[in-house]
Backbone:
């Protein structure tokens, strides 16, 4: 069946786009380049359309917005319009005001959000790790050992990010251990990423193998045609005289 | 006055801000002069620019998927700081630097930063805004665009500084296979491993934010970095005290956190 | 085979090997057993504890690139919510999540969605809410301010379910289907943290596998109570739903393919490291 987010023509186009983009793995070629440019153009249009729609809906036309007489919304709209002074040679510096306002809002939001969720709660949950009590040192691995590893990991990894003290003596030892913890974390994340990438690859293969329409169209019929296109273009390129770099 | 459950957060916020401000004022007043530890990735930028100049090939610079409209803006601004430094070096040496912004909102800032750096290098007439190439505001098209250009432009040095997500490996791999010297940094810990593996130099986590102070030697920035170190010490102290108190069956700290 | 030169093998051969070995289980499944992990089980169990009529949010914060991972996660959660009689407020804080979310809702609630009898009472789709973190925070503070209408232009005041959904306090669970930012961290910081913490608003996450290691501190602290880790998490969740509700499974073959792919990648890594060690021990220099 056709995936619900696509129709027949989108599926046909999808097969060619998939093969052309994957051909990049073999060698950069005009077909992969064409899809790359198309991809960028579509993304730019998609972003523009959504942002335009969202800005107008949120600021102007939406319920209880400017159009319905809620004048407070004129303020953010006017501030955001200051961005356009960027195109003026004389008044270009005015674009800096919306930039600083937005950055300031984000700083405030982030600090208040993070101090609770990423700072306090994390300290609290680390401090509550079980070190003594019934069952803490039973079984293998004992939960108490996990707690010790986590506590050492947090403190030593944090010490790696001390910038204004020389990493010598005890701090040197701590940062060295911290670096190993960081590397172990990176390894775990790398494993997760391999898994994610494989999932996406499998998703693409499923699209090629399983997409069909009314019993007469199967996406994989088009795969050899797309591959032939890539090969044809590669041969045509090879026959062309090479331009000097 | 303060929301229930957020009192401890408010107190901690006051402590962290106070530490930062005290450190900042002491440094600015010249009463303390903290030294920043060596960050090899930043030292390597000059080498990368020099190499690109010798080879006569361009330098590619990105600040990841950062804009100023999201909470990762601080990484973007750190990236733009490094962009300013790199583009000043490029202007001095006469190398071509191409910047690929992701978010349209940082376009004007990037133009501003690069233009200023060319002026600082005394080569304002050589600044070309077309070396800032917008590649659409969507993750993978942008990454694919940078990837294609890295091959076609025969990039000699690839510098990625800012918040990165799943596109990080695409960028790092493209630089690796095109033989570019790569320097990359991000505070997104779920992506930094790619840079550690594929780049020649990696800035891990907060090293990216320390770059501004490291490169500029500006007392204000160094002071705020020093203050951040104090807040880390506070964190370590709170964890250790909390662990000891919890093991001793004292719940005072937990009760405070729950306020 | 010369182990020392194996790292210099043309990478395109590796692509071909991977392509062939991943294709085999997709075309002829191996039917390997699925072992349900702690995180998927926690997601399932947490949702099961809710009572019929509880309001839950399902947020589609991903783009087309991660459909293979995020789509089955969202579909499974919506299915379980429907079976339990939960009232679902579906939305998206990613622009690209807007249309994708609608497709998933059609998959679960029927192709006529939103023209179904329960629309507006048991399920509502708000579509894309702009503003990233700011939009999320506003949604938690005052749902009606974040968006004045649903995805189809009906004012909030005319939707019975939205009459009962005015702020995060009205929610019993937040299900965040995400592949980046805004995602689970933003829900924790800007919604959960501001509205009573994890006890008041539990958070379950369906995420692309890349981000899961980074979520572990939040899981350990109870800020996240259940996680679906990429495609494998979706497969585990699917098998739980199949056992309890007869949910039609569709991830058996992809999970087989993923297992095979992982084995191949592990073999590549081992071979690469052997070659690296041998090259170093014989005084050679890596290219």
Residues:
């Amino acid at each position: 069946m056709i995936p619900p987010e696509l129709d027949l023509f989108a599926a046909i186009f999808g097969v060619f786009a998939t093969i052309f983009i994957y051909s990049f793995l073999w060698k950069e070629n005009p077909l992969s380049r064409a899809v790359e440019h198309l991809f960028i153009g579509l993304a730019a249009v998609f972003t523009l359309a959504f942002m335009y729609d969202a800005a107008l809906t949120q600021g102007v036309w939406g319920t209880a917005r400017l159009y319905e007489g809620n004048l407070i919304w004129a303020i953010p709209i006017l501030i955001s319009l200051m961005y356009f002074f960027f195109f003026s040679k004389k008044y270009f510096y005015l674009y800096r005001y919306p930039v600083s306002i937005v950055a300031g809002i984000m700083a405030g939001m982030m600090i208040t959000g993070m101090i609770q969720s990423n700072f306090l709660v994390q300290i609290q949950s680390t401090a509550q790790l079980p070190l003594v009590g019934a069952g803490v040192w039973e079984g293998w691995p004992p939960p108490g050992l996990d707690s010790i590893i986590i506590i050492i990991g947090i403190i030593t990894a944090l010490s790696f990010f001390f910038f204004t003290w020389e990493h010598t003596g005890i701090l040197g030892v701590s940062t060295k251990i911290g670096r190993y913890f960081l590397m172990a974390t990176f390894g775990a994340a790398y494993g997760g990423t391999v898994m994610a990438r494989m999932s996406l690859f499998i998703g693409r293969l499923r699209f090629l193998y399983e997409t069909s329409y009314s019993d007469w169209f199967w996406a994989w019929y088009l795969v050899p045609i797309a591959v032939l296109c890539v090969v044809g273009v590669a041969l045509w390129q090879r026959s062309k005289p090479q331009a000097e770099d | 006055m303060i929301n229930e459950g957020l009192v401890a957060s408010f107190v901690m916020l006051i402590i962290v801000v106070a530490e930062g401000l005290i450190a900042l004022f002491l440094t600015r007043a010249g009463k303390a002069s903290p030294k920043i530890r060596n960050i090899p990735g930043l030292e390597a930028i000059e080498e990368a620019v020099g190499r690109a100049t010798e080879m006569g090939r361009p330098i590619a610079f990105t600040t990841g998927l950062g804009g100023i409209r999201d909470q990762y803006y601080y990484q973007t601004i750190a990236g733009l700081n490094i962009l300013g430094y790199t583009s000043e070096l490029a202007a001095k040496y006469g190398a071509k630097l191409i910047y690929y912004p992701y978010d349209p909102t940082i376009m004007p800032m990037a133009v501003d930063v690069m233009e200023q750096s060319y002026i600082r290098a005394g080569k304002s007439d050589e600044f070309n805004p077309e070396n800032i190439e917008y590649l659409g505001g969507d993750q993978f098209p942008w990454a694919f665009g940078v990837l294609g250009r890295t091959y076609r432009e025969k990039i000699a040095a690839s510098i990625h500084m800012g918040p990165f997500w799943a596109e990080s490996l695409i960028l790092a791999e493209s630089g690796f296979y095109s033989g570019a010297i790569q320097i990359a940094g991000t505070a997104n810990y779920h992506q930094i491993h790619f840079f550690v593996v594929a780049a020649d130099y990696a800035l891990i986590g907060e090293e990216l934010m320390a770059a501004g102070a490291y490169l500029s030697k500006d007392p204000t920035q160094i002071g705020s970095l020093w203050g951040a170190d104090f807040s880390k010490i506070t964190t370590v102290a709170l964890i250790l005290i909390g662990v000891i108190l919890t093991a001793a069956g004292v719940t005072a700290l937990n009760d405070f956190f729950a306020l | 085979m010369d182990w020392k030169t194996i790292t210099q093998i043309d990478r395109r051969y590796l692509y071909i090997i991977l392509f062939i070995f991943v294709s085999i289980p997709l075309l002829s499944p191996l039917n390997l057993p699925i072992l349900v992990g702690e995180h998927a089980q926690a997601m399932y169990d947490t949702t099961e504890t809710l009572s019929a009529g509880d309001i839950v949010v399902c947020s589609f914060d991903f783009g087309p690139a991660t459909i293979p991972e995020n789509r089955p996660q969202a579909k499974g959660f919506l299915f379980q919510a429907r079976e339990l009689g939960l009232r679902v407020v579906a939305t998206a804080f990613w622009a690209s999540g807007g249309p994708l979310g609608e497709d998933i809702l059609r998959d679960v609630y029927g192709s006529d969605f939103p023209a179904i009898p329960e629309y507006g009472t048991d399920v509502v789709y708000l579509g894309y809410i702009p503003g990233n973190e700011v939009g999320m925070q506003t949604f938690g503070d005052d749902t009606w301010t974040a968006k004045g209408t649903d995805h189809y232009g009906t004012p909030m005041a005319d939707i019975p379910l939205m009459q009962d959904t005015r702020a995060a306090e009205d929610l019993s669970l937040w299900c965040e289907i995400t592949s980046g930012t805004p995602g689970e961290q933003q829900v924790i910081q800007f919604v959960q943290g501001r509205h009573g913490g994890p006890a008041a608003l539990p958070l379950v996450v369906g995420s692309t596998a890349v981000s899961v290691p980074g979520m572990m501190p939040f899981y350990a602290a109870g800020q996240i109570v259940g996680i679906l880790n990429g495609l494998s998490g979706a497969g585990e969740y699917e098998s739980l739903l199949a056992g309890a509700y007869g949910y039609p499974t569709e991830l058996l073959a992809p999970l087989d393919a993923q297992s095979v792919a992982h084995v191949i990648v592990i073999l590549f890594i081992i071979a690469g490291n052997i070659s690296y060690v041998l090259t170093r021990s014989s005084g050679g220099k890596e290219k």
